[in-house]
Amino acid sequence: MSDEKKFKSGFVNIIGNPNVGKSTLMNVLMKERLVIATHKAQTTRHRIKGILTGEDYQIVFSDTPGVLDPAYELQSKMMDAVKESLVDADVILYVVEIGEKRLKNEDVFERLQKTSTPIILLLNKIDTVTPERLNEAVEYWHELLPKAEILPISAKENVNLDLLINKIKAILPEGPQYYPEDQLTDRSERFIVNEVIREKILLNYQKEIPYSVEVVTERFKEDLNLISIDAEIYVERDSQKGIIIGHKGESLSKVGKEAREELEKFFDKKVFLKLFVKVRKDWRSKENDLRRFGY
Predict the structure, then answer these.
(1) Closest alpha carbon to 267 in 211, 213, 215, 229
(2) Where does the KH type-2 domain start and stop, copy by copy (predicted)?
């Protein structure tokens, strides 16, 4: 009889309300900064896979947009991605903050309650609460989702994340290696560029501006020592274009510098980045534009 370990693999989808730490969690689990994470809601717009491969396992994590009640077509597309993630998961990681109540979209929460897929409910940011509040939260969620396994964690402080990986591996079925062992994500280099630029816009502008922005990399040319990138930043109105560019182009220059530095770290190569700002009126509400932007 062989005592050789069986290879386990599967899809582990991360869901939760905006700003509960889903993207931070995935980056820490992957030990790589694959997805953008800011303090602002709706930072994540797409499902992004992170592929973690070990000697006898491959876990395909999927970060998803924060759950909300859609106000326009872009947000509807984002919620479609979340609903899809409930269907194709082998394991669901449901991330909540201590003191938080149920999901902000009732339909998604009802699907979560009815699913037969194993759920690990992660009580995140436990480094910020008392043991009493933690116990209250465990009782609250046990009543709402009795089939879920509850695990207190801190994504930021890396508390209980090794334990989480072991729990996931125990649940996953035996299966094939879906991706090459050196592949970290299913997304292209151009997508990574778009997201890094969008993150810098989220961090540098206030109010509605970051939410009205989409980024498209039009040119990505890699040589031995240099990557040359042309990227277009789309906004919905002329007034937003002026704000993005800023006085004498200073605001856009700052975004470009920060994005370039981040991309040089990620690609481990010199980057030459050119940014252009264009207006595409009300793109968040137009099916054709959303399709063009990959939604």
Answers:
(1) 229
(2) 197-281
Strands (E), 68-201: 91-97, 119-124, 149-152
Task: Find residue 61's DSSP bridge partners.
Answer: 12, 50
CA 151 to chain centre: 20
112-162 per-position pLDDT tens digit: 999 999 999 999 999 888 999 999 999 999 999 999 999 999 998 999 999
The Cα 223–Cα 84 span in angstroms is 38
Residue 91 · residue 122 · CB < 8 Å? no
| 3-state percent helix, strand, coil for the chain, nearest multiple of 5 | 40, 25, 35
Q: What domain range includes position 39?
A: 8-171
User: Would you list which residues are annotated within the binding site?
Assistant: 16-23, 63-67, 124-127
Per-residue pLDDT reduced to its tens digit, 201-247: 999 998 889 999 999 999 999 999 999 999 999 999 999 999 999 99
Beta carbons of 95 and 210 less than 8 angstroms apart = no
166 and 40 within one domain: yes
| Distance from C-alpha of 18 to C-alpha of 96, rounded to nearest angstrom | 10
E strand segments, the chain: 8-16, 48-53, 57-63, 91-97, 119-124, 149-152, 214-222, 226-235, 270-279
Same domain (yes/no): 159, 129: yes
To the question of pTM greater than 0.70 for the whole model, the response is yes
| 294 Cβ contact list (under 8 Å, min separation 6) | 46, 191
Q: What CATH number is attached to the domain comprising 248?
A: 3.30.300.20
φ, ψ of residue 57 to 5 degrees: the values are -155, 155
Q: Could you tell me which residues are annotated as the binding site for GTP?
A: 16-23, 63-67, 124-127
Can you read off the two tokens belonging to residue 137?
A: 């939260």
Gap between the Cα atoms of 125 and 39, Å rounded: 14
Q: In total, how many domains does the chain have?
A: 2
